[in-house]
Structures are given as C-alpha cells and as structure tokens.
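quick q for whoever's on today - can somebody do inverse folding on this one?? i tried earlier but teh output was garbage lol. tokens:
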C-alpha cells in the first residue's frame, strides 16, 4: 500500500519541504494544531492518521474527547489494537468519531493530521526516517497551511476510505462536501506558525544541552563537574526555577549533589528548602519504585503548588541517583519532549557515574582508597606543570610506617591492613581538597601539597606525625611513622628529582631514630651512619633475650 506521506510529497514538491524532527517534537506539533481548534472555537473537519499506541494516557484521551466535541466531524485512522479503536469518546452518537481501520501493510508509525475550517486549513505529516543511519530516531516531517495541498490530502484520504471501507466512504464524502471555504485567517495561521517556530527552537536548545553534557562527560573525569554542568544545562533549557542532580550508592565513594537556581528568585531560602525536601522524599521512594515522578501545575498532588518532575538514575536495576526539576511556572504542564530531555540526561549521567567508578577503580588503591602509584605519577606531573606555569612552590611528602613488618609478624596481615586503612583515614582527614595522597607501595605513602613551600609542608608533616603517633591500632597498639619532604623548586627541578629528594629525606628520618620529619640534606653533609644508630634494634634485643632464657 502506498504511503500518504510520500504521495503528498511527490505531488507537491515545491510546496512541501521535509525536515528532520524528534518524535516527541512531532507529537507536540500535533498538539499545537489541535489547540488551534480548541482555543479559537473552530468547528472543523478533522482527519487524523495516527501511529499505533496500545495504551494512551488519560490526558491524551481527554484531549481527543474535547476535539470530538468541538469539531463538525472527526475521522480517526487507527489499527484495531490502538487504544482509540473501540473507546467510546462521547455520550452522543452523532458526535462520536468515525473510526477507519488501518491495514497491516501500512507504515504504522506514519502520522497525518488534516484540519479544515471555513477560515483555516492545516496539514501535518511525518514518517520514520529509515534512510538516515546516523540518526535512526529522527523522523521526517512537513506541515503546510496551503489550501491546495490540504485539499489534495483530503482526496488521498477519500481514495483510501473508498477502497478499504466503502460503508464509511459516504460519510467522509458528505463531511468534505459540507465544508464552506472562505478567506484564510492570517491571524490563525501566523499564531500557529509562531508556536511551531518556538517549538523547533526549543528542540534545538535541548539538543545543544545534551551535546554540552556529553562533551563534559568526554572531557572530564571529575564527576562533580559533570553533575554541575548537567544541572545548569537542564535548568536553563527548561526555564526552571531550580534543578538538582544527586548521585549515591555503591558506584560513588560519597553522595554528590549539584544544584542550579535561576537568577529570578530561584535561590531563595524557601526554594532551597523545598528542593532539598523533595530530594529526601525521592531518595526514600525511588529506590523501591524507580519510575518517573511528575507533578503538573494543574494537579493538586500532595497539596503542592509548583510543577515538578524527577527521573531516577538507575544502573543494572539499582538506584544510583535522581535528576529533579522545579518549573518557574506554577501552572506548567510537563510536555513529553521535556520529560524526554530529563530521561536522556539521566541516561547520560548514569553512564558518567559508571565511568567515574571504573576510573576510580583503575586509579585508586583498593585497600586504602588513596591514589595508586600510577595515578600519583600522573597527578604529580599535572601539579608540577601548573606550579611551573603559575610560579608557585609544590611540596612532596614521603611517609613510611615504622617497623610495619612487626605488625604483620605479631598481629597478622589483617591487622596490618587495618593499620594502613587507619593511616589513610588520617591523611584524608588532615589534608586539603587540593592535596593528593597516594599509596606508593607497601606501607609507604606519598602526599602532594600544591602551593605549599617547605615551611608549610613541615607544619602538615608534623601534624600528621603527631596524629599517627597518637593512633592505636586495634589488636596491636600504638604506631609511628617517619616523614621526608622536598619542595619544588627549592630542592628539585623535575618530577623524578623531587621524588628522589623526598625519598632521601625519608631515609634520613628512618636512620636517625624514626618518628620524625626530615628535609633533604644540605650538600656536603653526610647521612648518619647505619653503624651509629641501629635501624631496628628490637629484633636483636629479642634474640638476645631468647638466648639468655635458654642458658
């Protein structure tokens, strides 16, 4: 069976120019055409050739009922399994729409809408874009207000009805003959054209927002920055009063949240409290029922006065976060294309959260949560590059637990792991957000202190030394650590020489009594000889005691 869309395009190539459009935007265009009828009290002939939908929302059924009540006559071309096929829409038999069955050989996703009144004619048509592999989800569409093209579409429908359902052909022909054509209303045509142009502009803005979020995901491994970009792009695109993105769960180390507030009163304390309260409520409900949450402005849901929408972030069936938007318009009714944007961004953020999780696994030590050696080297290279460009100092602290082997030998390796985790927690608690702690290997840790000279680094190292010395490991007792630090550019001019200088300073601390902080030795000074201070006298003393006992 021929396609009505392609038939009209072939007969009117000069008047019709197809363009690519998202299915949700085409559905919104369809609603705009119907709103012309409802808002201007028209009594037109309406013919709708609809894509098959097994379940239609109550909002959509209500809209069709209003059209049937307003129109002179309505013809619906639908399949037998469509929700509109056998639904009674009015109490009056005279007003009930004429339903014409679409056959299986039709393109069941093709859409044509014809509205004809004495002062207004309009045609909207769309079909899936099967030839564009680069964007298989985009549809091809065109619309026109040209009476000649609209009449041609009615002729095509007449031919279709006559060939497929001759019993309804007379009714269709009578409805067409009953039309009285007068001068086209420029005001009506201009009004809907303005709406259509605004809708396409909004679609372009949504595509730009999605593109910017995708770019942020590609170009950054910092999840908080990605979340902030998403919140701002969604908030601005939907003209929202406020927007929040929060992620949690096993894929992230800690709960992260970023917010957007509009410049027009969106950052008030009341708005912030309402947003946070909604997030807490959603965190409680969505993990058990991860579905889209929509509150339209015209709903009296839970006595709320503002329009809100939220989409859960789920990964492999598990709840990992939520994307929440509050509309700036209290009477706002959420459109399908707006909800589609939220779902698209939620999917993007879920991918970003999973990528960040895998990135963290690759760059962090599984036992302590600190950076591993590879990521330490990359971070030190970046921080040194920035320090060189900004002409600022950078200090590196190397730290080693004293007599760590004794912990493993006496208390076992599990207690040794506990000791390492306790030390890592001490580092995270004492360091700044810009500082980086890494497990360098075994019981050795490295700490990068950007914008810190030798004096400041000494203060940090001494604070860490005291904290660890006051720490008791369950199942073993008190522990201590030795520290060595070096500063760029005072003690070294490159990454490798800085690591060597800090390591030599640590070596000096280990061989001058442990539990202390050392700087690199000045040129000309010799390190303390190993023969003067035994690096670990305890094992020898224990061996001597055992010999005496045997005697």
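ok took a stab at it. sequence:
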């Amino acid at each position: 069976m021929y396609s009505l869309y392609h038939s009209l395009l072939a007969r009117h190539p000069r008047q019709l120019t197809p363009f690519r459009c998202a299915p949700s935007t085409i559905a919104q265009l369809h609603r705009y055409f119907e709103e012309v009828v409802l808002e201007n009290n028209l009594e037109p002939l309406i013919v709708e050739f609809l894509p098959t939908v097994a379940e239609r929302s109550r909002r959509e059924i209500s809209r069709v009922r209003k059209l049937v009540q307003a129109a002179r006559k309505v013809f619906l071309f639908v399949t037998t399994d469509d929700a509109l096929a056998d639904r009674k829409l009015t109490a009056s038999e005279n007003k009930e729409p004429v339903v014409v069955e679409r056959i299986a050989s039709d393109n069941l996703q093709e859409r044509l809408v014809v509205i004809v009144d004495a002062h207004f004619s309009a045609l909207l048509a769309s079909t899936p874009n099967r030839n564009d592999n680069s964007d298989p989800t985009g549809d091809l569409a065109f619309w026109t207000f040209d009476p000649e093209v609209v009449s041609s579409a009615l002729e095509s429908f007449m031919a279709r009805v006559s060939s497929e359902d001759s019993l309804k052909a007379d009714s269709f022909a009578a409805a067409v003959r009953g039309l009285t054509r007068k001068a086209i209303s420029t005001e009506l045509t201009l009004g809907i054209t303005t709406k259509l142009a605004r809708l396409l502009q909004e679609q372009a803005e949504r595509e730009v927002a999605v593109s910017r979020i995708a770019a942020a995901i590609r170009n950054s491994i910092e999840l908080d920055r990605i979340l902030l970009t998403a919140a701002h792009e969604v908030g601005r695109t939907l003209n929202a009063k406020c927007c929040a993105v929060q992620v949690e769960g096993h894929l992230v180390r800690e709960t992260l949240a970023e917010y957007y507030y509009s410049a027009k009163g969106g950052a008030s304390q009341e708005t912030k409290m309402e947003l946070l309260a909604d997030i807490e409520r959603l965190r409680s409900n969505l993990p058990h029922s991860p579905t889209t949450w929509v509150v339209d402005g015209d709903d009296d849901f839970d006595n709320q006065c503002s329009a809100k929408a939220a989409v859960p972030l789920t990964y492999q069936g598990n709840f990992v976060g939520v994307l929440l938007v509050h509309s700036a318009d209290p009477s706002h009714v959420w459109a399908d294309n707006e909800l589609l944007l939220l779902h698209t961004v939620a999917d993007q953020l879920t991918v970003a959260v999973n990528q960040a999780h895998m990135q963290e696994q690759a760059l962090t030590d599984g036992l302590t949560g600190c950076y591993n050696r590879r990521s330490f080297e990359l971070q030190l290279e970046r921080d040194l590059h920035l320090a060189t460009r900004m002409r600022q100092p950078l200090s590196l602290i190397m730290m080693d637990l004293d007599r760590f082997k004794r912990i493993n030998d006496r208390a076992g390796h599990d207690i040794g792991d506990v000791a390492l985790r306790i030390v890592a927690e001490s580092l995270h608690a004492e360091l700044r957000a810009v500082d980086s702690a890494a497990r360098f290997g075994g019981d050795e840790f490295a700490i990068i202190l950007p914008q810190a000279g030798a004096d400041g680094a000494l203060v940090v190292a001494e604070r860490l030394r005291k904290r660890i010395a006051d720490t008791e490991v369950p199942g073993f007792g008190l522990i201590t650590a030795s520290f060595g630090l070096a500063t760029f550019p005072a003690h070294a001019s490159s990454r490798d020489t800085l690591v060597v200088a800090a390591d030599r300073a640590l070596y000096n601390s280990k061989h001058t009594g442990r539990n202390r902080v050392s700087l690199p030795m000045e040129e000309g000074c010799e390190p303390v000889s190993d023969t003067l201070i035994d690096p670990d006298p305890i094992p020898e003393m224990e061996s001597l005691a055992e010999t005496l006992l045997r005697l």
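fwiw Residues 186-219 form the longest helix (34 residues). also The two ends are 108 Å apart (CA to CA). so keep that in mind when u check it
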